[in-house]
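Lecture notes, part 5. Sequence design as translation. It can be helpful to think of inverse folding as translation between two languages: the language of shapes and the language of residues. The source text, in structure tokens, appears below.
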């Protein structure tokens, strides 16, 4: 038998990826097996090393993918097989997370465990809705209560009389379904019907929603709005503070659902800016970059590079990354570039070069390959040797124009763009169910691949509009029969974000 592994019961935080602890991230990166449930942000799984096993054990209300006994057995089995097991739980594992029970099961089986606390939704969801759980003026304590208990039960484990007369903040988890019973019980035990109440669902995420009322009115408001779990219910005067403190829901793109269709590796710049502005971002990559390994011939050319070319023209950040990976597999020193001049199509490509401390000698004012071609005077092209490291789908305009003016052009297909088929985080499914306000396109290949996905929307889903980064992408949209609702004025990610801000 192999040496037993170790299990980490890890708090995954309330939803916002930024609210995960450093320790949690470290363990996710190290795990052999990740066991996670409904309330964990699935984006966390991206930190896992390639090859790590990911097991979803479910539990949206009433929809148990594995029973608690089965989960316990799974934990024991994986640890006995010698694995590093990371059991991720939404919020904090010991706050209504059954973390204590799982720890006991591991101990009984003679297995080692560690617990990593997380930020609980009990505090974070109110905070992101502008509600501090304590405040000198109006609450000197807070109580976190399960909403699972049936308040009409004779021998409830909860002291309803004490909860009703408590002057601090009362926070109910898992309480949406039983809200009418909870509020009437509090009132019948003497709580003031005018006590402010708020509910916050999917707190700290882009899909956060909140509602407000009083003990007397909130159950009806929640029913009328069709407001559903998972939500935290906050009872007490601190709820009033949200009129002033609600920074999260007042950001300009709050309540806007925006789809990002770039590749996983490129999405983060756009998604990050949109999230920062409050948007609910769905990353649905349509394409994936697959580098083409250098063969013997290319390695030989890389070795002789400085004697073979006058210019290298980079038309994407991917080309920079993959080119230099292959370059440094052959050379130890950047000076092997010699006197080769460098051109770049736009700011993202230029930034990637700068990260290597390489300045490009040419960068067009307008960020298209056509404009880049026009940057070269005829005299600069005639008889010169150009290397174009590019993708299998690159726009042929640049090489054609250089050749036309007497340049010698060599093209290297450094990477291929292939359709992304995986939906690991269930984002495509969410899009089909809920729709979106905007779909963003940052290249014509994202348009073509999005079209090829043919994602149909369920009735009631939001109908999206289309946002394009520039004229070439817009043309691709129109060609396939899509409207171009907005187009960036400068053809960059920031330009696109700017237009979205003005357009919504
Ligand atoms: N261990 C978790 C709680 C698990 S019980 C924690 O510490 O947060 C599940 C309940 O947590 C849900 O029914 C809901 O009441 C609450 N919850 C978890 N994440 C939430 C979120 N992002 N927004 C609102 N409520 C959330």
């Amino acid at each position: 038998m192999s040496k037993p592994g170790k299990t980490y019961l890890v708090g995954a935080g309330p939803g916002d990826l930024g609210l995960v602890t450093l320790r949690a991230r470290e363990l996710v990166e190290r795990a052999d097996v990740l066991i996670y449930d409904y309330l964990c942000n699935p984006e966390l799984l991206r930190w896992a090393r390639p090859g790590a096993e990911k097991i979803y054990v479910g539990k949206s209300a009433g929809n148990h993918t594995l029973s608690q006994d089965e989960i316990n057995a799974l934990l024991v089995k994986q640890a006995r097989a010698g694995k590093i097991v990371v059991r991720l739980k939404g919020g904090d594992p010991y706050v209504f997370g059954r973390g204590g029970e799982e720890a006991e099961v591991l101990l009984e089986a003679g297995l080692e465990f560690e617990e990593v606390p997380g930020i609980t939704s009990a505090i974070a969801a109110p905070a992101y809705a502008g509600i501090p759980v304590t405040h000198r003026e109006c609450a000197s304590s807070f109580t976190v209560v399960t909403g699972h208990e049936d308040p009409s039960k004779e021998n409830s484990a909860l002291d309803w009389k004490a909860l009703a007369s408590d002057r601090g903040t009362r926070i109910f988890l898992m309480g949406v379904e039983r809200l009418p019973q909870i509020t009437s019980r509090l009132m019948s035990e003497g709580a003031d019907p005018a006590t402010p109440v708020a509910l916050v669902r999917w707190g700290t995420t882009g899909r956060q929603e909140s509602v407000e009322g009083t003990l007397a009115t909130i159950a009806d408001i929640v029913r009328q709005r069709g407001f559903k779990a998972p939500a935290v219910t906050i009872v007490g005067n601190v709820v009033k503070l949200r009129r002033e403190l609600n920074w999260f829901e007042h950001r300009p793109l709050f309540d806007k659902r925006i789809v990002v269709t770039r590749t996983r590796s490129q999405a983060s710049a756009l998604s990050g800016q949109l999230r920062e502005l409050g948007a609910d971002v769905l990353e649905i990559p349509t394409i994936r970059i697959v580098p083409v390994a250098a063969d013997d011939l290319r390695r030989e050319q890389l070795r002789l590079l400085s004697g073979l070319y006058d210019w290298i023209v980079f038309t994407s950040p991917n080309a920079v990354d993959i080119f230099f990976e292959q370059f440094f597999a052959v050379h130890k020193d950047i000076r092997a570039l010699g006197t080769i001049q460098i051109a770049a199509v736009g700011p993202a490509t230029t930034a990637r070069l700068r990260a290597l401390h390489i300045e490009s000698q040419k960068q067009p004012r307008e960020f298209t390959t056509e404009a880049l071609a026009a940057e070269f005077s005829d005299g600069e092209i005639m008889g010169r040797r150009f290397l174009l490291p590019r993708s299998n789908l690159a726009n042929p305009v640049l090489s054609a124009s250089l050749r036309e003016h007497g340049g010698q052009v060599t093209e290297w297909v450094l990477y291929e763009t292939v359709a992304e088929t995986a939906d690991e985080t269930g984002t495509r499914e969410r899009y089909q169910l809920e729709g979106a306000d905007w779909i963003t396109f940052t290249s014509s290949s994202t348009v073509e691949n999005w079209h090829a996905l043919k994602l149909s929307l369920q009735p009631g889903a939001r109908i999206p509009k289309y946002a394009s980064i520039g004229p070439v992408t817009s043309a691709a949209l129109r060609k396939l029969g899509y409207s171009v609702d907005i187009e960036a004025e400068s053809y960059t990610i920031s330009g696109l974000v700017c237009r979205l801000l003005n357009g919504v």
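The translated text above is only one of many valid answers, since several sequences can fold into similar shapes. The chain has a mean pLDDT of 92.
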